Amino acid sequence: MDITPFIDLKKQLAALGPALEEAVLAVVRSTQYIGGPAVGELEKALAAYAGVKAAVACANGTDALTLPLLAKGLKPGDAVFCPSFTFVATAEVVALRGATPIFVDIDPVTFNLSPDDLEVKIKNVLSHSPLTPVGVIPVDLFGLPADFTPINRIAKAHGLWVLEDAAQGFGGEYQGQKAGSLAWVGATSFFPAKPLGCYGDGGAVLTNDLELAEVLKSLRGHGAGASRYEHVRIGVNSRLDTLQAAILLKKLAVLPQELLARQKVSQTYSRLLEGRVVTPKIPDGYFSAWAQYTIRVKASQRDQLKTFLQSQGVPTNIYYPLGLHAQPAFLALGGDFVGAKAACPETEKASQEVLSLPMHPYLDEETISQISALIIKGLDLGA
Ligand SMILES: Cc1ncc(COP(=O)(O)O)c(C=O)c1O
């Protein structure tokens, strides 16, 4: 029996109370399951929360990344820069369009895309390949926004667009601005385990470009034009269910207090673990949504510690055991920018050392103390 689930959605459901179940029942009774009023209401609320002019809800976070790429007409021969240390969707969406993901290494402190390595990789592509650099997809990993000031500056200097992968970052902040609003366009996910999660799949695109928002709405609905059965572009089916929108509206209302609770959990972990493991560092001017609380331990101890914690009822996860530049799917694409040639040493080091601990807003101090004591015991046993 685990001390706590890795993410405790049961406690959240109990805290949300009957209002959430009533909202679900109201949609069921309305029989309007697709495109009901809750979807438009949610889009307005998400845009207001993130401080952007428009939000376009869609079926999942992967589609939220794909829709802007469709709008841009991403094609074979195009190169898109993304971190290697991320969930596969960030680069998969690029490869699915026939374009080439170019893997960029991370800053070892924040785990996010290194602006210095971005410059190096852009120069490599320009001088050693026939590919055309077109865009960058920085990721707000573990809830911490990427370093957008230098990234946007470098991108601008090379004429590249920037798509923020805020799947894990929604609720985070960078220099006073909300995640999802930090570039030309932002994509987020409402997968249940995310800081703002629904009860199935869901996602949204956030942007200040109102023309783009109209194109994205058309693309998510089979490329519809002014009327439903006029199709002006090739699109996809990527609607967000009305039920998910109704759930998200209730959850968005409690997100600010949940973010503060996550903040407290992270502070408690850091206080108890500092000095024994490498705890996450949040640079000045950043606010993390704490999608994950991820420590680093010696590579020689990590897997043993994970096994020990599992035996003591503490679930942990390794995000991510392999950089994307070394994943079979991307190695199979071949070329000069995968495997050892990708040159992502910090990603390789991180993937050997990271361990994500249970993290959710309902984790109490006593449980955090228990988990932390077990981590220290596990390290002492393995030392
Ligand atoms: C960084 C990142 N990008 C994209 C996605 C894709 O989101 P979804 O699972 O909603 O398609 C995820 C979700 O896990 C993610 O963590």
Mean pLDDT: 97
What distance lies between the first and last C-alpha atoms, to the nearest angstrom? Answer: 26 Å
Number of strands: 12
Strand order of the largest sheet: 1-9-8-5-4-2-3
The coarse overall form would be globular
Rg to the nearest angstrom? 21 Å
CATH architectural group of the largest domain: 3-Layer(aba) Sandwich
Low-confidence stretches: none
CATH level-four homologous superfamily name of the largest domain? Type I PLP-dependent aspartate aminotransferase-like (Major domain)
Instruction: From the 3D structure, determine the CATH topology of the largest domain.
Output: Aspartate Aminotransferase, domain 2
Largest sheet: 7 strands, mixed
- Please write the string of helix (H) and strand (E) elements: HHHEHEHEHEHEEEEEHHEEHHHEH
Structure characterization notes:
- The protein has a seven-stranded mixed sheet with strand order 1-9-8-5-4-2-3, sandwiched between helices. Strands 7-6-10 form a three-stranded antiparallel sheet, with no helix packed on it. A two-stranded antiparallel ribbon has the order 11-12.
- The chain contains 13 helices and twelve strands.
- α2 (18-30) packs antiparallel against α9.
- With 383 residues, it is of the alpha/beta class.
- The protein has helices at 9-16, 18-30, 37-50, 61-72, 89-96, 115-128, 148-157, 210-220, 242-273, 299-311, 328-331, 345-353, 365-382, and strands spanning 54-58, 78-83, 100-104, 132-136, 161-165, 173-174, 177-178, 185-189, 203-207, 286-287, 293-296, 354-357.
- β4, α7 (148-157) and β5 (161-165) form a beta-alpha-beta unit.
- The chain has two domains: 9-251, Type I PLP-dependent aspartate aminotransferase-like (Major domain) (Aspartate Aminotransferase, domain 2), CATH 3.40.640; 255-382, Aspartate Aminotransferase, domain 1 (Alpha-Beta Complex), CATH 3.90.1150.10.
- The structure holds pyridoxal-5'-phosphate.
